[in-house]
Design a protein that fits this description.
Peptide ABC transporter permease, globular, MetI-like_sf, transmembrane, transport, transmembrane helix
Length: about 325
């Protein structure tokens, strides 16, 4: 197990280095820059002076080495369009995105896995057909459209839920206020993720239900509920857990759109603002943190396999 952890952590560090290299050189090769994004009427002389002030006139390799050296010391640098330290901004935005992503993931798992099990147990029933129709609809509709429709219905027409923010600033933070603000964005993000989880759970369980050892259990008089809960579900859980791990990167990318639609100050909006302002340092920080979150989560998912199925060992 220790060897597995060391090997996976080493691979994770290598992946992060490759991500940083590719991202750094791609964003610097793109046309424009912080000087062109700050003011359109900037003259060529002013742009040269600003690039020199920001250190952007140095060779790319030298700048990457300097950036990597600061990162090793835990310094993400400062924003190019304001000079603010990126570390505190990143911590605050990451916390907001984590609230959204974990709420959506919890909703997806709590609703998606039981619904997938029910549709597998009642294959070709009315519930199965209705669920297939809804999941197909969920996979076909863009998440920004779903978000806008949710705001129109629940915030504009019925006026029962707020359309933006994390809580009511005038009333201060409260759990009820946070829940009211989180229902719409987390619900929309979960609705986008839910179809894949329902369908994967259904197909995974159907595949296990057709195996010989379950027919033997039924022939011995074991009840259908016990067959599913004690035997089938345990074997079907491993690929379902893998699917949950694959959902996380989709949650992070989906949060970019959902945070923009619902006005949430998270990592997604920070990435969009940084890209529009050609803020190289912030783009690098957001990309690396998102990559690290995905790598750590996948490692935790792999470790969970051996807990669910003792036959799986990590050497």
């Amino acid at each position: 197990m220790l060897g597995f952890l060391v090997r996976r952590l080493g691979q994770g560090v290598l992946v992060l280095v490759l991500i940083s290299l590719i991202t750094f050189f791609l964003i610097n090769l793109a046309p424009g820059g912080p000087s062109s994004a700050s003011r359109f009427e900037t003259t060529a002389e002013e742009r040269i002076a600003l690039n020199k002030q920001l250190g952007l006139d140095q060779p790319l390799v030298s700048r990457y080495g300097q950036w990597a050296g600061n990162l090793v010391q835990g310094d993400f640098g400062v924003t190019l369009n304001g000079g603010q330290p990126i570390g505190p901004i990143l911590r605050q935005r990451l916390g907001n995105t984590a609230q959204l992503a974990l709420s959506a993931l919890l909703l997806s798992v709590v609703i998606g896995i039981p619904l997938g099990i029910l549709t597998a147990m009642r294959r070709n029933s009315v519930l199965d057909h209705v669920t297939n129709t809804i999941t197909t609809l969920g996979m076909s509709i863009p998440d920004f459209w779903t978000g806008i429709m949710a705001i129109l219905l629940f915030s504009v027409v019925w006026k029962v839920l707020p359309s933006s923010g994390l809580y009511d600033a005038s009333a201060g933070f409260s759990l009820v206020g946070w829940l009211r603000h989180m229902i719409l964005p987390a619900g929309v993000l979960a609705f986008v993720m839910l179809p894949n989880l329902v369908r994967f759970t259904r197909s995974s369980l159907l595949e296990v239900l057709g195996m010989d050892y379950l027919r033997t259990a039924r022939a011995k008089g074991v009840g259908e509920r016990r067959v599913i809960s004690k035997h089938a579900l345990r074997n079907a859980l491993v690929p379902i857990i893998a699917m949950v791990g694959l959902i996380l990167p989709a949650l992070l990318s989906g949060s970019v759109i959902i945070e923009s639609v619902f006005g949430l100050p998270g990592m997604g909006r920070l990435a969009v603002d940084a890209a529009l302002g050609r803020d190289y340092n912030t783009i690098m920080a957001v990309t690396l943190v998102a990559g690290a979150v995905v790598i750590v989560t996948n490692l935790l998912i792999d470790l969970t396999y051996s807990v669910v199925d003792p036959r799986i060992r990590h050497d």
